[in-house]
Amino acid sequence: MRPVVLDTSVVVTGLIARRGAASALVEAFFADRLHLAYTPAILGEYAEVLARPEFAGVIDPNDRIGIILKLRASGLLIEPAPVPRAAWPDVDDLPFVSAALAFESKTIITLNPRDFAPAADFGVQVLSPSEARREFL
Predict the structure, then answer these.
(1) What distance in Å separates the CA atoms of residue 60 and residue 77, rounded to the nearest whole number?
(2) Which SS3 state, helix, strand or coil, does residue 77 take?
(3) Pairing between strand 76-77 and 37-38?
């Protein structure tokens, strides 16, 4: 099972929706059917976003804590790779590109593929949750 990088949008949607492709990916991660790669910056972003007040009544606190603990226990912690200069639509997404560039699979799963479009020029595969579900589950 090759590791992939999940954009925060997929994690949040997967924990909120309980249905659909993003939810299937998050459930697969919890069931050890999807292997995630992450960097300290990604772990920090997940924790920060999931702790926001707007998600307090929407995402179960056990799920918020659970995904962080599961990632630390079974995810692939990697050293971020340098990110080539490009016209990145959202520089906040660079930690995810950096992670994808750091290992063989070079795959990011996101709900915002346009933000990651330049990554394809560097060999990164950018998939929607639906595409990833078909490919990995």
Answers:
(1) 25
(2) strand
(3) parallel
Judging by beta carbons within 10 Å of its beta carbon (0-12, 13-18, 19+), is residue 113 exposed, middle or buried?
middle
Q: Are 11 and 59 in contact (CB under 8 A)?
A: no
The predicted-structure confidence for 95-121, as pLDDT tens digits, reads as follows 999 999 998 889 999 999 999 999 999
What phi, psi does 38 have (nearest 5°)?
Answer: -155, 160
Q: Is 130:23 a contact under the CB 8 Å cutoff?
A: no
Domains of the chain, first to last:
5-136 (3.40.50.1010)
Across the range 61-83, mean pLDDT stands at: 96
pLDDT digits (tens, 9 = 90+) for 50-70: 999 999 999 999 999 999 999
